[in-house]
Records
---
Amino acid sequence: MLAVEACGLAKRYGGGLGRAPQDALRGIDLAVPRGAAFGLVGPNGAGKTTFVKALLGVLRPSAGEVRLLGGSPEDPRVRARVGYLPERLALAPSWTPLEILESVARIKGLRPGRAALLALLEDVGVAEAANRRTRGFSKGMRQRVGLAVALLGEPELLVLDEPTDGLDPLGRVHVRGLLARALARGATVLLNSHLLAETERICGRIGIVVGGRIVREGPLEGLAPPPASWRVRFEPGADEAALAAAGFTRPGGDGIHRFGGADAAALNAALDRARAAGALLAELAPEGTDLEAVLAEAVRA
Amino acid sequence: MIPTLAIARDLLREARARRWTVALLAGVTLLLLLAAFGLKLEVVDGALAASRFLGRSVHGDIRAADVALRPLFEAVAYLVFYGGTLLGVVACADFAPALLAPGRIEHLLALPVRRSELVLGTFLGVELLVFAGALYGGLGLTLIVAAKTGVVGFAPALAALLGAVAFSGVYAVMVAVTMAVRSAALSAVAGAVIWVLGIVAGNRAALAPLFEPGLARTVFLLLTAPLPRLSALALHAPRLANGLPLEGRELAIQAGGTALFAAAALALALAAFERKDF
């Protein structure tokens, strides 16, 4: 069962009056299974937000088809099962978070009760401001209210456009926890974020959008090339000459060594030689396999 | 709750916090208080013996109270109709543009509400707001006069109702303009223009002879034909105030025409909204 299906989704803007038309989306195909966490990444202007809006019917695609939770995104019954946080959510300044949630609950046909709404605001960390007008809220607080709106009614599909924008590091950790809970109850999460580390931590599958197309898609480990080198840290006091002889280089003065090549057997042999010389391994990590490297490589290509 | 009603309800809730709405409500209340405390009417055996406003004698003749109060109800009926619709144009110009504000409309469009329901909910909310405002002023004054004289006039209430009908045509145009260009100022200008044209259209039979027979007059009549006859609608409440019977057929035609005009303008607005990207 798929939560999101996009087939040949295209969006062309403008044209006429001597201006050339602009293709924001150039035929995107995507299938996100239910219960998955899917991350969209890409450079600015790649079409990520346009794609999200086209999925939800906020803008009309020029071509292609979209299905959400097996139905049309135009169907209010389908939309009632979707929670959305737009990139720049504008809250009514004269309303309180509680009033905003009550309004959305009415439109969604929910009757959550005041206690449940307060619990939701507690979850996102704005319970103390539940009855304060949102005028004067910080960006982070507004974002938290937006998250509460998206999470209201435990939607089956969460579409979040830059959900941690404006949040402090602790707030980001908090949001990751909320999303993990949503995933645990079986919800699907579609995350659009320019924070690659965050996307990497939350999402099992990644789609890289470049120039209005998804140029790569799949689990991160499948997208990443084999490590070009290994980052190695030994406990202080190791014999540098022995480490060099074992095949480790130390390009900087930061105490970090590197071992070139993707061959695990060669790496283990080098580590054995280093240990035999008395070095103690403290940290080992592959280099060039994180999302940042994958994205950079995809954009270059 | 039906989404259209939920949107209308939210609009009314939002209106409560708006300075314009609060200022208008305060202004009308101030006028009512002025009338309540400043107007002194002495009624003896059903006749108005004397009337004073803020201590100054307004009328000294002894006349039947209901007859003597006709000019007052007539003036109130005009005030409620024209004042209500014009103030509605100014006070409500920002509602539709606010609906389309970036960051808000994306969120609304992702909720289980159709685009048509968003537009209709906004339209309904504004209509209710203007009707309630006009009714508050008109009925308030009616009650004050009734308490002072025992004479009850329904003209102000009818004027409020007709004002809401007239405003439907005006506001529908304002919504349609907003769908083309999201600007409160432009919306207000469009409302004011249609308000003036509606007054012209209501007097088109009287104004037509001012144009040379032939092309000019035909063009004038053609251009004013689809417009709502606001000034003609405005005449019914003062007629009632003057003890004249309501011209039901005329009233139905004019109100129906205005409603049809509003429906056409709203249909245009909806068509534009359906195609719009955010």
Note: Chain A touches chain B at residues 53, 56-60, 74, 76-80, 82, 84, 86-90, 92, 94-95, 99, 103-104, 106-109, 146, 149, 159 (CB under 8 Å).
---
Amino acid sequence: MFPADFAYARARSLDDAFDLFDEAAAAGEEAKLIAGGQSLLPMMKLRLATPQVLIDLADVAELKRGQWTGSGHTIGALTTYRQLGRGRYVYRDGTPAPVNGAARLVDQIPALGDALAVLADPQVRARGTIGGAVAHGDPAADLPAVLLALDAELAIASRRGERAAALDGFLHGIYATDLAEDEIITHVRVRTAGAGGSAYEKFPHPASHLPLAGVCAVIRLRDGLIERAEVAVTGISPCPYRAREAERLLSGAPPAPDALAAAAARVTRQDGEEVSLLGDQHASGPYRAHLAEVLARRALATALDRARAATGEHATEERP
Amino acid sequence: MEGVRVPAARELSVQLTVNGAPRAATVPARTLLVHFLRDHLRLTGTHVGCDTTQCGACTVALDGVAVKSCTVLAAQADGHEVTTIEGLAAATQDGGDPADDALDPVQRAFKDEHALQCGYCTPGMVMAVRQLLADHPDPTEDQVRHALSGNICRCTGYQNIVAAALRAAAGGAGAGTGTGREG
């Protein structure tokens, strides 16, 4: 099984990629970017995607570099899941991040470590990239839930210049995003401040490992109460989303199991109504919604434990 | 980088280092790495199982890291290093199967623990276990099972494969399996 015929070129810079976009457009051909290809190539083999030109970004060095700032971290779009998990991405000046040092992103954001441990399998994690995960717009991708909960922003480049976009709002629906045909995601920026109290829980499909439902929760404590919480859900609706009704219930709430359960019970509601649910032969919409509630309780409980550990408070005695 | 950018093409000259030797061929752009290895280089130890990135039978090391070669284009591997199951142990002088003492420690552990029946998944399993031991030289049973989540075996029930991974680890197989090329 192999993809439909296409022409391939490896861009060496963003300008190269823009030139290739222009050449394809001039020839009336559909061009598509490829990074790790772990989502795109399977779709091409099934002829669900049939680009006529494939532009490989693997050699574009500026997409591999990340950057520290005070409260956040900018990750190069070509950073693989494996590199993210092991801290083997490089900073903007080209120096590699320490593998076991305190700078490991997964230590600062435990939810990211949770997701990277259960995302696909080790071989896929060695190739798949964070930029690809966002650009692909898969309704059942793990990482977008974590990134949404961390208020991720995308840096996007095109011939017209650079722009920033919040991930919340960028994802539109099934394989649909706000990315224009001539645009390239260059970096993903995540917040690390207050991310210590975070967790990701999923219910994987046993063969594909995709989440039938996945929930990321982030909790920050202040004066013995939940100051703020972020909750993001994937796998159950046309695109991953922030569960803002659940978040509102948690804001200012006591960090107790019944408060977490009450918020989890609202995790499939948005703007006063139930989110649009996806169902297929693997799991019905209502079953996925049920999973999301259970996983939200678990993710919130773990996030709370971690938030308490980060602030030196006691762990929860009861777990849902 | 220097030079003129190569325009998009449906046929490509691909040059890579396979099991330590330079190999080159001109192939259609859509050629998958697994087909390049099997059909162009006649390295048929790498198997095609599910062909959908799930079973892991096609696992090879690309720049020293285990990947599924059914989900990598040969063009993406251009200029890189690939190690296949054939690269782990030298054949005998007349081209026969490697002698026992020439086997990779992971291969020998698979043999000692009877970690296969039909053998179809075995090359991918061996490559995945080598990656595991490079990353975690002393894994727990749970870590072995988790690390093999991308490899499917329909014969063994995994028990003996896990035993083989643990035996290889106990024998120190994890030391020095990484190539250090990983970026």
Note: The domain at 61-191 of chain A is CATH 3.30.465.10 (Uridine Diphospho-n-acetylenolpyruvylglucosamine Reductase; domain 3).
